[in-house]
Amino acid sequence: MSGQFRRNGKIWVRVLADLPITGKPTEVRMGRGKGNPTGWIARVSTGQIPFEMDGVSLSNARQAATLAAHKPCSSTKFVQWS
Fold first, then answer.
1. Per DSSP, what are the bridge partners of residue 23?
2. Which domains are seen in the chain, by residue range?
């Protein structure tokens, strides 16, 4: 997405990965704690604004958002502030 803006615009990511995912290896006996953290996820609720863009035209922002929406498999909706 940042390649679409070419130093003209700014992007703010408003989603933070704050929930650790833990897992124990296979063939480990029961007990002895929860396991080591293997990754992090972010909870995104319906209606939350994950990205903010500024300093680019609406057509460039739409193109960048459609390219970026293929990664998490989500639909995009634009809210334009005046």
1. 36
2. 10-70 (3.90.1170.10)
